[in-house]
Amino acid sequence: MLINMLLVSVGAVFGVLTRLLLSNWMKTKWPMQFPLATLCINISGSFLLGLLFASGLNSHFQLLIGTGFMGSYTTFSTFKLENIELHLKKKYRIFWSYIGASYVLGIGFAALGLWIGNTYL
């Protein structure tokens, strides 16, 4: 049990640092009203989690990468907050585009990760 908590914790530290660095870099590189950084992070995380799930790696590695790293790398709470902000600012086109792209691309890329993992790993 202690090893599981340690694996998740270590993975989470690296996941949140990766998200922070990537998000800040993207926001300075491509400043816009559309929350592109969160969308890209969540979509890439969906793909990688699908790939990891299909890989059949041992449970310790899945805890480290899947639960720890991916759990803190992807960010459902930021996604929700950004949607609330877009709605309050009456940026409805961006609001609906962001929701649609997040769900459709997120599920699509998770499925792609599963397919690649099941086919090639």
Automatic annotation (TrEMBL):
It is found in: Cell membrane. GO terms for biological process: cellular detoxification of fluoride. Na(+) binds at G71, T74. Na(+) is not transported, but it plays an essential structural role and its presence is essential for fluoride channel function. The chain crosses the membrane at residues 6-22, 34-55, 61-82, 94-116. It comes from the Bacteria. It catalyses: fluoride(in) = fluoride(out). Coiled coil: none annotated. GO terms for cellular component: plasma membrane. Its main location: membrane. Belongs to the fluoride channel Fluc/FEX (TC 1.A.43) family. This is Fluoride-specific ion channel FluC. It comes from Paenibacillus nuruki. The lineage of its organism: Bacteria, Bacillati, Bacillota, Bacilli, Bacillales.
